[in-house]
Amino acid sequence: MVERGSVTPDDTSRSSRDPLPGANLGALRGHNDALVLGLLRAAGPAGLGRADLAARTGLTPQAVSKITARLRAEGFVADAGRGASTGGKPRTLLRLAADARHAVGVHADRDELRAVRVDLAGTVVDRLRTPLDFAAGPDAVAAAVARAVHRLAGPAGAQALAGVGVAAPGPLDWRTGVMGRVTGHPQWEGHPLRQAVADRLRPGDGVGDGNGGSGPPVVLDKDTNAGAAASGPDSGTSLYLHVGTGLGAGIRLGGEVHRGPRSAAGEFGHQVLLLDGPPCRCGGRGCAEVLCLAAVARGDLPEAARILGEGAANAVALLDADRVWLGGRVVQQAPEVFTAGVRRALKARAFGGPTPGVATARAGVAEGAAELALAPLFGRKA
Amino acid sequence: MVERGSVTPDDTSRSSRDPLPGANLGALRGHNDALVLGLLRAAGPAGLGRADLAARTGLTPQAVSKITARLRAEGFVADAGRGASTGGKPRTLLRLAADARHAVGVHADRDELRAVRVDLAGTVVDRLRTPLDFAAGPDAVAAAVARAVHRLAGPAGAQALAGVGVAAPGPLDWRTGVMGRVTGHPQWEGHPLRQAVADRLRPGDGVGDGNGGSGPPVVLDKDTNAGAAASGPDSGTSLYLHVGTGLGAGIRLGGEVHRGPRSAAGEFGHQVLLLDGPPCRCGGRGCAEVLCLAAVARGDLPEAARILGEGAANAVALLDADRVWLGGRVVQQAPEVFTAGVRRALKARAFGGPTPGVATARAGVAEGAAELALAPLFGRKA
DNA sequence: TCCACTTTGGCAACAGTGTTGCCTAAGTGC
DNA sequence: GCACTTAGGCAACACTGTTGCCAAAGTGGA
């Protein structure tokens, strides 16, 4: 049953040109439900009282009571004891029932697949890791992803999952779930990977059993966007920088992942840092990537970190970001060197103002993919 | 009367850290009203039928009838004749009643003040231009701005305006309306310019007449953000580049101006394009600004355009922008040279994909400031 | 021990939203 | 002249958050 005016996770037909949809009572309820759920999630196991929720949402306590009663009836919210009294009746605390639902996040990387199952709080409850040959092509990868999801899904099966997030390298269209031209793998271009995975997760278990039951919602996103989402449900404006076989970035603005109208946002590696510098494989000259990876190749990690930092400072200044996360295999070789180098570059450009925090990513891309799958429950588009 | 849960233009107490507010019926109505008004605005004088509005909003025709009846009773919407029949009763067209309200936009630049009065459609109906000495300090500038608004306000007076937008150079906090450290003008730091202007626009006309009537809502924003808004109510992801005494940028993502958590977004001029290059006045080396302005100073405009284009390409790739607007006095010296240079740089980085459109800004900063003042009516935060 | 006070939070009635079902008006096309 | 299509209003409706009121459950002073 599709409600008019409300946006479901599967609603990808709407182009970004179209206006925001009109809102009806269903959309209003969904908004407030997600808002309350998000606040309870952020509060953690300690929970929150109804009065706290009312103060933070701007709704009346009575409305909060109705909303929480509904969420409790659906199993999303549970009691968490009582708080201390502040001169009157102590508040009855509520917490997110983290076990109510689960999501699976999959990182389909060039040479291996990592997958995690998380609960509603984002806590990893199961994980899995297998080799993967991305060059084997779409069908093999879609099958491997679906296999991983089934193995992790738990006793209730894949269709009970709140969502499945798939992170893959290279250009792809987040809205349609179709892959673009992945460097070195031309056979991927135009493949509807999201649909291929979704088909394999339907109850019938086989591909193309037309109008069988519907499986869990599947989202496909760039690995860098998943990396950005891995920093958790924080609402900041942050930048995730990935240094692996190339340089990439994921952008979060006010908590939302920014993808751009063509899902191409986050192109970070081919920004020019040295006009007319050494040629890059992209055809340009003096790109951050060619400079940074050259420094890595000759073992000069501090210089690589400096270059990464200069590129980061350019992006931070443009976006007014307040946090930078670093990830990827190269960073993991020497986390302190990279964080220190980036921090130094940012500080030099801060002109005495506050410097964004710099840290290595606290969770992997698979965790971020799971976060993307959970996001709609908590009122985020992504 | 402040409605709980709804966001008014004056609601600046909410930090960007707070969650989105809960929505009640008032917020829902406001959302739909603004949505319909925005669609009618975009449709222009030709107008739109109720069925068109229903299709684009996702609301039922009946809901659209109620909404348009309300807007018509308030004078915001008027009849626009009938459309052609498509096999049945021809639709009754509705259009925005552009004359229903007006807004004033003011550009307080370093050496002159430009102001415009626009109607709801954004059409300029009056304009004004006077010298201004920004160095004369906050009080003199606030007085000059208020004077300009009063002179342009029209017969109904300033308090009848739908809004007043003020664009000023340099760092400032959009949320609080407080100025930052303007280069070369230390006396500005910390001055609450927005409040100062608002005080002078209250019915009593004098400063500090405490609880007199309330004047029109005032917004204060960076000139570059106003420049970005000047491209009209288009919902794209675009970049406005300003080349004057420095290099600045205004960012629009999905139609909304992106300001960042500290209102500092759009810092474009001090991105490093030439690592360890010539020193810049900011203390860094090889910034886009120092390279570009040096080329301008020696008369090499094509090289200046190339440098601007390389910086633009960096930003476009990061944001996935689909449009670039150029403005500022230096660009106006040789618009074709700059548009061609920027276009060439963007094309070289597009890797065969679509290239963002490049053009000189079609309206000035004052027009953009007026647009920012009107934005809340049409459902945009900015 | 009692009692005033504070705070939590549910019940019932309410105002107001968009939706549904049904109707009339006003065209087209055979 | 008539069947058909499309636009758009009226009335009843389901459901939202809000308001007014009250009971429950604490604190703290007399």
Put the structure in a nutshell.
The structure is a homodimer of 382-residue chains. Chain A is an alpha/beta fold.
Describe this entry's structure for a reader.
The structure is a homodimer of 382-residue chains. By secondary structure, chain A is of the alpha/beta class. Chain A is built from eleven helices and 15 strands. Chain A has three domains: 75 residues, Orthogonal Bundle (Arc Repressor Mutant, subunit A); 130 residues, Nucleotidyltransferase, domain 5 (2-Layer Sandwich), CATH 3.30.420; 129 residues, Nucleotidyltransferase, domain 5 (2-Layer Sandwich), CATH 3.30.420. In chain A, helix 1 crosses helix 3 and helix 4 crosses helix 5. At the A-B interface, helix 1, strand 12 and helix 8 of A face helix 1, strand 12 and helix 8 of B. The structure holds a DNA duplex (30 and 30 nucleotides).
Return the structural class of chain A.
alpha/beta
Task: State which percent range the strand residues of chain A make up.
Answer: 15-25%
The overall strand count of chain A is 15
Strand order of the largest sheet of chain A: 6-5-4-7-10
Task: State the CATH architecture of the largest domain in chain A.
Answer: 2-Layer Sandwich
Rough outline of chain A:
globular
Mean pLDDT rating of chain A = 88
Output the CATH class name of the largest domain in chain A.
Alpha Beta
Which percent range fits the helix content of chain A?
25-40%
Largest sheet of chain A: 5 strands, mixed
Q: Quote the CATH topology of the largest domain in chain A.
A: Nucleotidyltransferase, domain 5
